[in-house]
Design goal:
The chain starts with a strand and ends with a strand. The protein has no helices and 26 strands. The model has no long low-confidence stretch (mean pLDDT about 90). The chain is mostly beta strands. It has strands at about 5-10, 30-35, 40-45, 55-60, 65-70, 75-80, 90, 100-105, 110-115, 115-120, 130, 155-160, 165-170, 170-175, 180-185, 195-200, 205-210, 215-220, 225-230, 240-245, 250-255, 260-265, 270-275, 290, 295-300, 310-315. A four-stranded antiparallel β-sheet has the order 4-5-6-7, with no helix packed on it. Strands 8-9-10-11 form a four-stranded antiparallel β-sheet, with no helix packed on it.
Amino acid sequence: TDPSTIAFTGTGRTITDWWRHGHSHIDESQIWVARFGEAIPRYEAITKDEARHAWPMWSSDGRTIYYVSDRGGNENVWAKPLAGGDARSMTSFSNGRLVWPTISYDGKTIVFERNFGVWSLDVASGKVAEVPITLRGASASAAPEHQSLTTGFQSLALSPDGKKIAFVARGDIFAASARDGGEAARITTTAGLEAEPTWAPDSRRIAYISSRDGPTHVFVYDFGTRTETRLTNGSSNDVAPTWSPDGKSIAFERGAKELRVIDVAAKRDRALATGELDRPPFLPDHAIAWSPDGRWLAYLTGGQGPFQNPHVVSVDGG
């Protein structure tokens, strides 16, 4: 109401470090009022206690300043009359963040962000409530995105029956008809990286690795039931999934140290051998090979010097 009077936040690092919860001496700040209606401007500190004060707002009559303060430990909206008198808390939150307040033109309502929601404060009654927000015009689910890609494909795998292909594009697993082409079906939709798709002997399932939880683990997708199953866990990377000839087991390498095999139905895995195994991106395309009868596994392991040699181990151990 008085164009010659301005309220502002002075000292501290409130502007640059507004996101910080709590404060230290470097970001303690005060609310100031500057009056320019006289020959020499006058400056007055409205708040003087050791706390963080920010975002001053004027009442409609210009007699009160509202602001946010963490005085007392948590951020709340406070009010301070310019004519004198103590500041008082308008809200009483004991947790969460209160930032970016703004007051309506009539001075009756203050709105602010709290815990990623929008809240309102009725200045007269002190009543505070979250503002209900309804999304309108938004689809109930994510709309499908159709893209025609010509590059960026990796790990092409042909099914044993020769009718289907699986491949990696932009870190996800896709499958398509090897005979007719057309649109590919997207198998994974995670933020992690999926790789190394390999078909089961029945051409109805694929195994692959995914880094969606950090380390890579082995997953299986069943096209008949359209379900995905996670087979391995742990803090080490599991790579190179390789189906057994009967489709009941998958061999894989763990942590570049262990050759392991897992029973797909029971989800039980066990170590068969240890050694100096390769890891991506140096892992060969066929790091593990099953014997035709499914009784032996062949693999490459390093020893002394920069050389690798082939080894075989019985699936029964030893």
